[in-house]
Structure formats: structure tokens, C-alpha cells
Amino acid sequence: MKDPHVEPDDGVLVKAAQTDPDAFDALYRRYIARIYRYCYARAGNRADAEDLTAQTFLAALEGLSRYRGRGPFAAWLFGVARRKCADHHRSHYADRSEPLAAAQSLPDPSAPDPEQNAYHNSVLDCIRRALPSLSLDRREALTLRFWGGLKAREVAAVMRRSEGAVKMLVSRAVADLRRRCLDEEKTE
């Protein structure tokens, strides 16, 4: 007897959705928050993120018959989201630094005092300014990994790189940001 608390894996849900579009709802509910966060990080505002999220799921539903299961479903779905965001940027939005600016204004509930908040805000501001100077690949890997919540192997599938290459891109992006935003502060 199957445990009712164990959720089916993506493969089972995809097979069901390929024959019954109503079954796509389970995949939608599983990935909606992660796709929205990724789209928000790329678009920088709620309205565009909502539109891009909707476009992603509509395209995924329409293209589900082309998913062959050769890689993780999450990677395939984030690939769809990535293309939708890229299309949006090409046609509407060139400044990719805004998403961190929006995050900067959010209060940090774990900050013990205003001084700590000021420090965090200065670091976020530095990251916001430094992020566009990263190479496109490093910035994309970082965004997929941390804002999209994907695992390194899923980012690798989205970016069509090896897992090792993605880990290196993320590691170097973090090191660049650390050097620019934390190490510089120590020398000032």
C-alpha cells in the first residue's frame, strides 16, 4: 500500500499531464513559487514576474508533449522560463540590476539591530551594483541557482553545460561578489 503522504515524482505527474491536461495542476502547484521567484529576480517587478510566470506555465502545458524525460522536469521547465524571461528582456527591459534593489527594501527579520540592517543593506546595494558587471553566464547561473532554487545539475541542464561548469560559474560569481562587496569593505 502506498503512503498517502509521499508525493509522486515529476515523471509520474508529467505522464499523467501528457494525457490529461487537468493533471498539469499538480506540476503547476509544485513549481509555481520557484518559477515566480526566478521570474521576479529576472524581471524586477511583480506585474512582469506574474506575466512571465503565466507565460511559462502556458508554454509548458502547450509543449508538454515534447518533453521526453531525458533530464529533470524542473530543468526543462526552468528552460522554458529562461526563454520567456530572455524574450521579455530583449523586447522590454534592459536593466537587470533592479531585482536586488527591490530585495534591499525588504526588512531583515533576523537582523539583531539597526546597525546590522545598515550593514546588510550596504552589502545588498553593492551586490546590486556589481551583479551587472558579472559575465552573463555567471549572472545567469547565480540567478537560476539562488533565485530559482535549482540544484546545480538542474541549472546545468537549463544552461546546457556540465554540472562542474555550473558549479564553477556559481563559485566564481560568488567569489567576485564577495571580493567586490565584502573584501573591499575591509580595506576601506
Question: What would you note in describing this structure?
Answer:
The chain is an all-alpha fold and 188 residues long. The chain folds into 2 domains: 1-94, RNA polymerase sigma factor, region 2, helix turn helix motif (Rna Polymerase Sigma Factor, Chain: A); 95-188, Orthogonal Bundle (Arc Repressor Mutant, subunit A). Helix content is 72%, strand content 0%. It has 9 helices and no strands. Helix 7 (136-147) crosses helix 8 (152-159) and helix 7 packs across helix 9. It is globular. The model has no long low-confidence stretch (mean pLDDT 82).
Average residue pLDDT: 82
For the largest beta-sheet, the strand count, sense and barrel status come to: none
Query: Which segments are poorly predicted (pLDDT under 50) over 5 or more consecutive residues?
Result: none
Percent of residues in helices comes to over 70%
Number of helices: 9
Radius of gyration from the CA trace?
Answer: 18 Å
The share of residues in extended strands comes to under 5%
Which CATH architecture of the largest domain?
Answer: Orthogonal Bundle
Broad shape = globular
How many strand elements? 0
Structural class: mainly alpha
- The name of the CATH superfamily of the largest domain reads RNA polymerase sigma factor, region 2, helix turn helix motif
Question: What is the end-to-end distance?
Answer: 64 Å
**Can you tell me the number of structural domains?**
2
Name some characteristics of this structure.
Arc Repressor Mutant, subunit A; mainly alpha; single chain; about 190 residues; Rna Polymerase Sigma Factor, Chain: A
